[in-house]
Amino acid sequence: MFFVVFLLFSILIFRLGIVQIVQGEDYQRKIERTEDVTVNTSVPRGKIFDRDGHVVVDNVPKNAITYTRKKGASQEEMMKTAIKLAKLIKKETDQVTERDKKDFWLMNNEEKAKAKITDKEWAKFEENELSEKELYQLQLDRITEKDLSTLTEDELEVLAIYREFTAGYAMTPQVVKNKGVTEDEYAVVSENLASLPGVNTTTDWDRAYAYDGTLKTVLGNISSSREGLPKEMVEFYLSRDYSRNDRVGKSYIEYQYEEVLRGQKTKVKNITDKAGNILDSEVIREGQRGNDLVLTIDMDLQLAVEKIIEEELGQAKRRGGHPLLDRAFVTMLDPNTGEVLALAGKKYEVNNGKAEMLDFALGNITTSYTMGSVVKGATVLTGYMTGVNKLGEYIVDEPLRIAGTPTKSSWFNRGGAMGINDQYALMRSSNVYMFKTAIKIGKGKYRPNRSLSLDMEAFSTMRRYFSQFGLGVRTGIDLPNEQIGFQGEASTSGLLLDFAIGQFDTYTPLQLAQYVSTIANGGYRMKPHIVKEIRQPIAKTGKIGPIVEEIQPEVLNRLDASPSEIQRVQEGFRMVANGSQGTAKKYFQSAAYQPAVKTGTAEGVYDGPKREQYLEKGQELPMTWNVTLVGYAPYDNPEVAFSVVVPWAYQHSANSAPINNNIGRKILDKYFELKEQKAKEETSEVIIEKDIRLKESAKDEEEE
What is the mean pLDDT of the chain? Predict the structure, then answer.
């Protein structure tokens, strides 16, 4: 035993001696000639679903050809590979720039390039009076159109591939072609990979939208692999382990939830020699696509609302709407949670003689308008909250004759005087009630045919109270670039009266929806949100995974009004839809779901996108009417709130303008219709599941 152990140790010591002494230098050189390089490869983004689990945004796989540049790869090596690859695939040349062509020409016309430099300039270069960079710039500047015209289509195709090779970073896969890669191209390149160093065939992905055109402006865009990281945010993304050619969200939901949707990249360790050739590769971490988003949006409702807008907008154009009428918006919220149920906007455009309805859902948060009488609920409550009015107090509605100002009156009372209370003022949309409320807040006193002097601090006071409803401030929605509207310049007392009836400051359609939701739910301003849940992805399935995070309702503030004061305004809104003289009675009194609404019209000078065209021609801007509507239902237990905004709808009068009311009635009808339909479907599913369980139970008993 001793002899055997002695012999084994002797063999081991002898072998170690050979490795360390005889072959040590060889092994040391082998170690020194290899490097470990870790790279990340992209993965598909997370999917986007609606609240019912319907896929809204998906990833579509597609064939791709990539190139991974080794460290120290020379121009000649890459050019040889590009020439070989150009013979196997068709590469578009539309992205090739003039500078690309000049660089390519210089690379392939060395003698002609040298001839672009004079002997005197070469002498300066040799004497270090001209740098190599300056010399190269002189060559670039002296390349003529005639020189570039010598480049053939085949050479341009090689150039298009070569520029893709050089666009990426060493050891990082760069997409050469991922659009229109045919099966033949994919196969022939795969067969020739051995002679195409750095080239590989793989599967890439692209975003696919299940509902063409719907919500596209809100869903946002992602950058292409060619664009990579936005220039203005390169450092931000690089500090978060992004590569420069990574695709990222550029706008709205894709941008807002980039960290959620981006996924976990595949981490690969490449072992290379000193020349940069890859000796071996090892996957350190498998990639996983990004988490999925579940929106608050009901796509069935969204599509139906968009169709209603298109129909009504088209009819309004045909039946004498203003020539400048070109858009309409609808926002629908759950007033109790702030969930956005539908965010619809359409823009009417004529392109090449053909009328089109384009998606403009984004306009609900990025455009603002004077909204008219819909804001009178905020004015009435501001009167309560400032203490200038009391519940049920009567105010005389009469034409106001202020010196130096045209007579101001309510539309239903042009000449007489009548006592009205707060609810009647809302039901019939009294301007004078609101005027006199503003005068009290401004510490003024109305005297017929005399000037009106008000404390201009009243503007700040009223705006501060209006902001409690979300008017004139950001709503807090989980989307970037939300606008807050424009505040008019508080220059005269009379403008405060215009402010009180919604004809001074501008608001967004979303602000209106938040405002009416605050009244509907009893005074809580809820933060609107368009994402409901974040879910884990499930591989190779269209199903929704487990919840990672559920977005909880958030109260931004509570009105400084008492429950009884809010109830007065709620009843006033109910009377607009169902009262004997309600301004929207004609449209809503037959609704079984018992709505509460407030109509609005705002007359003013056109301030839309074609304004500059009028000014350039020296023409006077036309007067237009914006028509609006806010509401909720049912009035005693609200589950949906909404705003309808149609700017520049009519030119001469809005008295017979039904588009806002038509849209409002139809979207509420559709909401409750879909609710009933889904309830029946859920009941049917429960019955079917119960029937299956009973049959399985009976079968088990029979077998026993």
Answer: 89
Give the containing element (helix H, strand E) for 517.
helix 509-520
Instruction: Name residue, tokens 């037959």.
Output: 590
Of 225, 189, 228, give the one whose Cα is nearest residue 81. 189
C-alpha distances (whole Å) from 428 to each of 137, 338, 572 are 75, 29, 9
The residues with which 329 forms a beta bridge, in sequence order, are: 345, 645
Regarding whether 304 and 162 lie in a shared domain, the answer is: no
- Asked if residue 660 lies in contact with residue 629, where contact means CB atoms within 8 angstroms, the answer is yes
Bridge partners of 553, per DSSP, are: none
Burial class (CB in 10 A: 0-12, 13-18, 19+), 353: exposed
CATH number at residue 379: 3.40.710.10
Please give the structure tokens belonging to residue 71: 């460290």
Strand (E) or helix (H) holding 273: strand 266-273
Whether 10 is in a domain gets the answer: no
Residue that terminates a domain, selected from 148, 169, 190: 169
Four-residue CA torsion sign, 639, 332, 661, 675: negative
Cα separation, 672 vs 679, in Å, equals 10
Least Cα distance to 344 among 311, 321, 383 occurs for 311
Cβ atoms < 10 Å from Cβ of 703: 6
What six digits make up the tokens of 692? 């299956």
User: Is the distance from CB of 115 to CB of 148 less than 8 angstroms?
Assistant: no
Q: What are residue 189's phi and psi, to 5 degrees? A: -70, -40
Do 623 and 604 meet the contact criterion of CB atoms below 8 Å apart? yes
**What would the pLDDT profile of 550-566 be if each residue is shown by its tens digit?**
999 999 999 999 999 99
What are the backbone angles phi and psi of residue 58, rounded to the nearest 5°?
Answer: -125, 175
Asked if 42 is an active-site residue, the reply is: no
Q: Is the pLDDT higher at 367 or at 284? A: 367
Greater pLDDT, 687 or 93: 93
Catalytic residue among 225, 243, 368, 373: 373
Listing DSSP states for 205-267 in one string gives: EEEEESSTTTTHHHH--B--TTT-S-GGGHHHHHTTT--TT---B-SHHHHHTHHHHS-B-EE
CB atoms within 10 A of CB 504: 21
- Residues 624 and 477 placed together within one structural domain of the fold: yes
Listed in sequence order, the residues at least 6 apart from 298 whose beta carbon sits closer than 8 Å to its beta carbon are: 50, 51, 52, 341, 342, 674
- The pLDDT tens digits for 383-416 are 999 999 999 999 999 999 999 889 999 999 998 8
Q: Which amino acid is at 585?
A: K
The residues near 480 (Cβ < 8 Å, ≥ 6 apart) are 251, 252, 255, 256
Q: With contact defined as beta carbons under 8 Å apart, do 570 and 577 qualify?
A: no
**Structural domain contains residue 227:** no
Domain hosting 78: range is: 74-169
**Using the 8-state DSSP alphabet, how is residue 422 labeled?**
H
Kindly list the distances between the CA atom of residue 337 and the CA atoms of 320, 445, 527, 628, in Å, as whole numbers in the listed order.
40, 42, 8, 24
